[in-house]
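ugh ok fine here u go
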Amino acid sequence: MLDEIEGSVQGHRDGHGFLIRDDGGPDIYLPPNEMRAVLHKDQVKVRMVRQDRKGRPEGRVLEIVERPPHPIIGRLLHESGIWIVAPEDKRYGQDVMIPRTATGTGKPGQVVVVELTEPPALFGQPVGRVKEVLGEIDDPGMEIEIAVRKYSVPYEFSDACIALARTLPDKVRAQDKKHRVDLTDIPLVTIDGEDARDFDDAVYCEPAKVGRGKGWRMLVAIADVSNYVETGSAIDVDAYDRATSVYFPRRVIPMLPEKLSNGLCSLNPELERLCMVCDMLITAAGEVHAYQFYPAVMFSHARFTYTEVAAILANTRGPEALRRKDRVTDLLNLHDAYRALLAERTVRGAVDFETTETQIVCDESGRIEKIIPRTRNQAHRLIEEAMLAANVCSADFIMQSKHPGLFRVHEGPTPEKKDILRNYLKAVGVGLTISDEPSPGEFQKIALATKERPDAQQIHSMLLRSMQQAIYTPVNSGHFGLAYPAYTHFTSPIRRYPDLLVHRVIKAILAKRRYQLPELPVPGEAHAKLAKRLQKGLAGKVREPDQKPKKLSADQLAWQAAGLHCSANERRADEASRDVEAWLKCKFMREHLGEEYSGVVTSAATFGIFVTLDELYVEGMVHITELGGEYFRFDEARQELRGERSGMRYAIGTRVRVQVSRVDLDGRKIDFRLVHDAGDLPSRAMRDKGIAAVPGMSPRDARKRGESGAPTMERASGPSGKGLKSVIKKATSSKGSAKARKPRR
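structure:
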């Protein structure tokens, strides 16, 4: 008898589903008949019964272990005297029946939140009642209201949290300054975006003698959130539950109440604030010579924007510099230290790809006015390097003290991804490859060697895709992309819970005590479930292959669970943000149906190509049936679609001209069709590749060919660092009693 396998169900809009296994094994396909009595997100037990025609393991649902109380959001419809809710998330696969007496105040066409009263059965649809009416589908901000409920993002603070926040002071009091270094005379400044409302970090830099050479003393002051958010308090419970702030266009769902995030903890200009300081000495070679941490009280001497600082650095006699003449020298010192850190980054071999990020600009009604690229200037990079240095010192401090804590771990590529990347580099004629145990420098070397090639974007995209996602974990295995042996997050405790934990650990170490994770009432249930999963599977990752699984202590399990919780909620926030952006882009493109744009292929798959428009920065799909009247085969090594008859290729970086043909708001999908010259010729992308034009069929003829039995593609469902120098030096002449630390190699 085959083993029973437990996991969560992930539905698909086409009716089938997959079991995402708790033990991390490969997903198991669930055919449509197995999905009749289960719902997306259900926790179930499955037995593998066969392999389907695509070679995937196929399962049979044996038992529903748990049905999480996730609400279902959808449109309330009244059809033939029957009330139903069509789920907005098509992965649920079934409409929900609503009794006439359970519609509440909902009206046909409105978006509602449904609570299930009867689960689905093999021969019956699920039944529910309307729990909340959100409004009309086109109401401003509706996409955010849907997303926060769809992804279970906590968007309301508890009454206990709000009540506790009201008792906090409005400003720093005299008693708050005790046992802190007074840095109010140090001209610390904040540098953030124009639309920033909470300020986590402030910086200051001055020349200093480091050893026998020249260097800099750089201070990174971070808001001391831990002073106001006590372990296990009502505010702490809510903050842990959220784990991160979630950023949407025109709206932020903060991790902390506004009184803290935008007020008491925010390093607002010309106000005293409590902070935790990473005080560093940096050599001319860009290495951190020594550092120390201490609690302090600071005064923000200026609030700069990235644009303003970049203008001052570019022209120290310009109007921006004249307005801030008292701070220009400090900014130049900071820039000099940044250049040294940047040079050390190059020596270290850290991966540094320039990618294009976009910003959605909305009007007051929530409609997209334009989508613009975010440009990273010298000021962005300057602050980034300063924060990286402080984060590395934090990780080193925790490691040396042998205190448990959360690290930001980014592991190298998996064996499968390494093979795919090697084959790809060979296929496109790149003379370099990666070793069996690649270093970040190998990736950076390939990126630099190919940056002038016409397919550089395609190559860099493949390099990025080969890397794993970063996670929070108490088991440090370094940060591959940044080429650091140890790395953590210290610099954003207003918006990230792991940073708040790091602050608490550093304070505990300074006080020569041990920080104990709290027993949090609400997330405690999640802790128990996560601990169970860790003991079953994930705990095996901390042992050698030939050893027996290591039983973790309660403290170790708590830190493992906290890391998993923070990592999962980070993904949740990203998914919710992307979902809202996709919704807005779909609504935006509905106004441009039939219009033509130039674009570039950003990825290829067996079922078609994805194209990003040059002017609008919106991505859509060209289905394989729209590519022309021939059979296209997906080349996995080259990551491209190639026509068997003409040899026409569509790869990442191929230039195309497309027309907006269809927008699916519910599915968050935009479809394009290629614009052909003279109506019957292949796309201009074919000419760009130097391939002779070959007359082809129209998309309609291609579909007819498929229906007649001719070959067609099957439709698919969707798209080291050198370490810190080991030299003991007195870091500063600070008024505090904190001891300078010896960085570890």
